[in-house]
Design brief:
The structure is a homodimer of 683-residue chains. Chain A is mainly β and 683 residues long. Chain A is built from 12 helices and 32 strands. Chains A and B meet through α4, α6, β9, β17 and β18 of A and α4, α6, β9, β17 and β18 of B. The structure holds cobalt (II) ion (2 copies). Chains A, B: Residues 21-104 form the Copper amine oxidase N2-terminal domain.
């Protein structure tokens, strides 16, 4: 690590920085270099996104196989820019050749809303006469307009306005004091903002008016806690330290840890992207995943009253999980020895900006990895596990999403998401009925029912790119109780269904059969089990999409209709709800439904495929979730099945080991990791 | 803590030990005192179990409400003893009155198999001529009989032998070397052992013989790892220390931590029993659970070939999760500051024996408890969580079960079970087909399909004993897409079904509706949400019981047929598969089915009830699980819903907090828990 640092410093000083890895995100200077080229040809534009146009897979696989003797994939910038009149341009800039290789005006789409786009709205709202008028009606005098706030959301889709004009809806709040939690004081009307002209073009006003909440503030900042008796004083510290540093090495953005190797990318949209994940299996570096990311999400709210149907944020596609990422510069989100990575983006004006410490990489103790005691003599082996977490936290207006990609020593990759932050709220009058569409979490505060549905994109590379997906259901064996073949009725087995086309692979979760999905390489058979090497998706938080078929959310969030989709790999199929999500009507449904409609009969057997998995939770709020929500975790596992010859973590040093013969001879056992001869203590 | 210890030492020296709490397990001297009384009246017996006969609830609630002015419940020993001819006696001994208050000969039952019962079998097997003969047939010469091992299991139920005679089946293995993992060398025949006469009465021999495995050993002990290249050397230490000690207090067996109070009991059967769990809600000590335990489990194997149908261990009811508990005397299973509790049991001869450090109580860091950043100005609060774990680990022959009862600061109680140890294995010939009933995890080693199904017993006390259970399903709202009431199709809500009788409450899991169950007190309404205070069971690992209706497992493990049962509270209904499980035929099905058959129409609404929840996993083995299995976790949550007025953890000191006004004025923010003024660093 020290040598790595020294190398970096030297390179910085001498200007001999190594060429970026083809998977590396664009650097600040690469971003600005792309902007300079575009400016030259197309003049002044607002920049929406400039991100790595990832190397085409065929070319990249060739390069990865032999980087020294093949052509290095070019660095290419994928650009979204906006001109006057909300005109959207999609472009590609080849940075190696310093030229624009694609430049298209794209009609009828709206690219995502950036943080800068969001920040403008509140200022406009506060001085708009129509907004001031509405505030007056519900009890906010115009001299208090500086106490009015808004969370600007994309409009989602509103058929009255279509998608020709770039719009945001302003969810309105009030703060009696600047430090008050505004979600206790939601306002009942919703201005519509034109991002191009920076004007309020319409206000949705409900038929029943709701004066601003008169309840006392409900805060969680230190002064509020002090006023209610102060912080608890009975927590003694737990110190987690790594005096010798971390157990992983960092080579550019490639992390090596416990036989794992992974390239850590990041983009404005998906946040963390993990590429070329391999496992060193006794000297043999075996491919497992070519690419893993959280590709999209949607948070539909369940209140059918207008205009709440518009509340169904695609936090990645409409705002960008990367753009909204917290800077962990203060280092207070994690414990132990942390390695951080920054993230660079383009701003509206075309300069690059950096989120310091956007990605956190650290290890944690993982409790018992394995243990077995022989009941005859108490001979035992017990080994503690370790895990590696690659994480970021993003703030989507009211909510926080903490995303942890976790690598385990036993070959498992886990995705854990913790949900925290604040409920989206709407105003209600005293005594008003929620009609079951929400919960009054505090007087005058209606938190609507909603779902958090995430789509994980898995590009498997199980011992190579030719993979096949099987659905696995636990099923009872044939034969009734009493029959010769199943006399006692206890027969059961794993029923495997091979998906041969994308249309066949559209599938839902089935809890009763403990359904899992195996990504297998049928060309490579485990010599012991005689089954194909595979990784199994084990995911149990898989609610059905509750918005109905044919409805707005169903149309726009096609990926969320089913738990699993499988498609044949295509370089440009990255975004399961489409490339430009805001104001998409869902007619036709972009992304997955479109691809499957077009190529649903193409074979997905023994070929390069992508598995899309939608999971999440249905959230019926309660007062415990307010004013700030205790983290709610959800998790899924990608587990090796028939991939290894045995438990790949057997060589992790045990905390304690004593064999029967050691026990019998009263000789010392294995020395524990703390250096003491534990057997001699024990026997 | 120091004072506590001093008090204990003083009491020990002066002999003025305080009277046990009525929930305390029987002490060694109480056990021996019961034995002395029984011996006087009934002479020589083998003791199977002597455990606390828990105070009757009505009496106990009265005492708990006012311990100083009500009669203290008597200490009563619940006794199971075995006389000659496998005669089973169930008795109660009142220790306060020093008399036997009940003594019954119970016909047609077999109490559980103790560790002592298990230990005998291997010795008998090794010298039995019929066993020696069978060993010879599959290639083990008689001079190698010391290399033959067996895991004795209860016979489960075998209709050929019924339940008049106390039987065990010996699952046979071989160890070329004493330190070899025997599960690589399973033998193909199964002796039946009579526990009363200590003889082999029968041997089940398969029609196809399978010579003992000739594959090399597959071990995980240090010498085996060294022979394959040694332990990995790239793990740097993670130190977890609590220099100021733990954050909980211990008063006898009552633990107080972060507003929680819980009495930690333990018995030979269920292991940890948590009683009288309350939460101090701003000075108001509110009841949540009267009693929580893992009450039963069953592990059915899915191979229908005789005699594998007998492999369906009830590890708690047939062996005892307490009896099989590991001593953690070496302290190497957990990190940080640990408080241990011992466990005392009776042995066969009637003396008391103690497992040192049977229960581990410790805290762990729990990551982000809550966080919110205001996207306008990066004002933020981030607070780390802490959890309290009360755990034990038990070894059920080949498998290890690590049971963690986890208390969270947000009011959540979590049950986590980690499964590790070694697969149960059976022999197979080279090239033999598993027929899908198992996996060849190593040459010659067939690991059969199986399920691990646990039954958690929840005796809720949600603000008092009068509780009601509701099934909660996420459902789409009425009205088709386009209708006035649901124009965009996005309406959805929590559909609640009240269970009014035990028969109605028999219910399965439904993943598609994200089904949960609420234990509510309908007499107490949350003033904000206007909904009853409740705790919600959130459990996602809920496979269907795969053995078929009417079959052996289905009959014997009635509790496992459904995810949830609810019964009206009865003092004697503790064991959902019955009090004496081994050799029960399941005709009629003991425990839950019997109780519901008898009292299924009694109201369970707004009364004292018990909820029984069956959860677990279906396990299709793979080579990665062998020779010792990486821990597989499963978990469930009991979460407060409408129980608190707000997030009850708001007063946990934050790692970092900065309000908008602090940010704006560039003044210092809240001092972080590490003492630095972080705001001034940040702004
Ligand atoms: Co939510
Ligand atoms: Co298992």
């Amino acid at each position: 690590m020290v040598l790595d640092r020294l190398k970096q410093v030297t390179q910085h000083v001498t200007g001999t920085a190594p060429r970026p890895h083809p998977f590396d995100p664009l650097s600040g200077s690469e971003i600005e270099s792309a902007v300079a080229l575009i400016r030259q040809e197309h003049g002044s534009l607002h920049y929406n996104a400039i991100t790595l146009w990832e190397p085409r897979k065929a070319e990249m696989l060739t390069w990865l196989a032999d980087p020294n003797h093949t052509v290095r994939p070019h660095r290419v910038a994928d650009v979204v820019a906006i001109g006057r009149g909300s005109k959207v341009y999609d472009g590609l800039v080849d940075l190696d050749e310093q030229k624009i290789v694609r430049w298209e005006f794209t009609e009828g789409v709206q690219p995502l809303i950036t943080m800068e786009d969001l920040q403008i709205v509140e200022h406009v709202v506060r001085v708009d006469p129509k907004v001031i008028e509405q505030c007056g009606i519900i009890g906010i005098p115009k001299e208090d307009m500086h106490k009015v706030y808004c969370d600007p959301w994309t409009i989602g889709f509103d058929e009255r306005f279509g998608n020709k004009v770039r719009l945001q809806q302003a969810l309105m709040y009030y703060r009696p004091h600047v430090d008050d939690n505004q979600y206790t004081f939601p306002l009942d009307f919703t201005p519509i903002f034109n991002s191009d002209t920076q004007e309020i073009i319409h206000i949705d006003v409900p038929s029943i008016r709701r004066p601003v909440n008169q309840a006392p503030a409900n805060n969680y900042h230190p002064a509020a806690i002090e006023a209610e008796g102060g912080y608890r004083k009975d927590l003694k510290p737990i110190n987690i330290t790594q005096p010798e540093g971390v157990s992983f090495t960092v080579d550019g953005r490639i992390i090596r840890w416990q036989n794992w190797k992974v390239h850590v990318g990041f983009n404005y949209r998906e946040g963390i992207v993990l590429n070329n994940i391999t496992y060193n299996d006794k000297g043999n570096e075996r491919g497992i995943f070519y690419r893993l990311s959280l590709a999209e999400m949607v948070v539909p709210y369940g209140n059918p009253e207008h205009p709440h149907q518009r509340k169904h944020a695609f936090d990645l596609g409409e705002y960008g999980g990367g753009y909204m990422t917290n800077s962990l510069a203060l280092g207070c989100d994690c414990k132990g020895a942390i390695h951080y990575m920054d993230a660079s983006f383009v701003n509206r004006a075309g300069s690059s900006e950096t989120i310091k410490n956007a990605i956190c990489i650290h290890e944690e103790d993982a409790g018992i990895l394995f243990k077995h005691t022989d009941f005859r003599d108490d001979s035992v082996v017990v080994t503690r596990g370790r895990k590696l977490l690659i994480s970021h936290v993003f703030t989507a207006a009211n909510y926080e999403y903490c995303v942890y990609w976790i690598f385990h020593q036993d070959g498992t990759v886990q995705l854990e998401i913790k949900l925290t932050g604040i409920l989206n709220t709407y105003s209600m009058n005293p005594g008003e009925d929620t009609h079951g569409w929400g919960t009054e979490v505090y007087p005058g505060v209606n938190a609507h029912n909603h779902q958090h549905l995430f789509c994980m994109r898995v590009d498997p590379n199980i011992d190579g790119p030719l993979n096949t997906v099987f659905q696995v259901d636990a099923k009872t064996g044939p034969g009734e109780v009493g029959s010769a073949e199943n006399k006692y009725g206890n027969a059961f087995y794993a029923h495997k269904t091979k998906y041969t086309t994308a249309k066949e692979a559209v599938s839902d979760y089935d809890g009763s059969t403990s359904r899992t999905w195996e990504m297998a390489n049928t060309n490579k058979i485990n010599p012991y089990s005689h089954k194909p090497v595979s990784y199994k998706l084990v995911s149990r938080e898989v609610p059905a999409l509750l918005p109905k078929e044919g409805g707005l959310v169903w149309k726009r969030a096609g990926f969320a209709r089913h738990a699993v989709h499988v498609t044949k790999y295509e370089d440009d199929q990255i975004h399961p709800a489409g490339r430009h999500v805001p104001q998409s009507s869902g007619e036709p449904s972009a992304g997955l439904p479109e691809w499957i409609e077009k190529h649903g009969d193409t074979s997905i057997e023994n070929t390069d495929i992508v598995l899309w998995h939608t999971f999440g939770i249905t959230h019926f709020p309660s007062p415990e979730d307010y004013p700030v929500m205790p983290a709610e975790p959800m998790t899924l596992l990608l587990r090796p099945r028939n991939f290894f010859l045995k438990n790949p973590a057997l060589d992790v040093p045990p905390s304690y080991a004593l064999t029967p013969s050691q026990k019998a001879t009263l000789l010392g056992g294995f020395k524990g990791t703390d250096g003491t001869d534990k057997a001699s203590v024990r026997v």
